[in-house]
Amino acid sequence: VPAVEKQRWVLNDFDIGKPLGRGKFGHVYLAREKRSNHIVALKVLFKSQLKQSQVEHQIRREVEIQSHLRHPNILRLYGYFYDQKRVYLILEYAPKGELYKELQKCKYFSEKRAATYIASMARALIYCHGKHVIHRDIKPENLLIGAQGELKIADFGWAVHTFNRRKTMCGTLDYLPPEMVESVEHDASVDIWSLGILCYEFLYGFPPFEAKEHSDTYRRIVLVDLKFPPKPIVSSAAKDLISKMLVKDSSERLPLHKLLEHTWIVQNADPSG
Ligand SMILES: O=C(O)Cn1ncc2ncnc(NCCc3cnc(NC(=O)Nc4cccc(Cl)c4)s3)c21
Question: Which of 16, 31, 96, 103 could form a disulfide with 42, with the two C-beta atoms 3.0–4.6 Å apart?
Fold first, then answer.
């Protein structure tokens, strides 16, 4: 779907196909734009639910932010339209679906697969931060897999432009860095923390500060209570990288361009991403 700006889309412009998944706010369907025959994913959101959760402004901000982002590892949001009861997001279709299902199936990823994913995420986040956009909700549920097996960051519903930083709590607790859990000022380095959590979960199959109670997870995050289990066997290079990202002082976290030069990434990531 070429970026035909200001195109007023209507539901009748699309043939609706199989359901792809159901999120908190609505369902996602495979769809084909009739004139171009272009395959897309259509996310259908109910206005009633959006109003209840006061997230209408977040949708508008997501569309605005996404309209400026073009990167192979960021899922495109081509546009949106609405009718009486629903809002529709016109999205790039990711044929290999959701990464978290893949992670559940494999339990955990090989170091090569994990490093390849983390490197492509780092490149996408360097691109976003270069445009003063922080994602703020990096987690397996927001990652999709493209036709060539490449990772696509999706759902910028919690993204912000850094000049108007917000202190609202967002996403699941597991991925929030200390400064967001303590809801103080935060900046692009929140995405570095979440990428470190993601790297740990790719290698062990669960996030590092997981606990039964929210209060325990909260305590483990703010204490950075980082432990590496004896199984599965993980290289010391991988643990070194994770330890340099999960640092309480956000200014001390390993910058993303330094991550791409880290031994573990250089030795394990497939350059094609
Ligand atoms: O993931 C699946 O269920 C299945 N799936 N499988 C393949 C596939 N290909 C593309 N997209 C999929 N899913 C949609 C991914 C999203 C991208 N962008 C989003 N944005 C958003 O939800 N914004 C939003 C919503 C409600 C409130 C607010 Cl504040 C913001 S969701 C696909």
Answer: 31
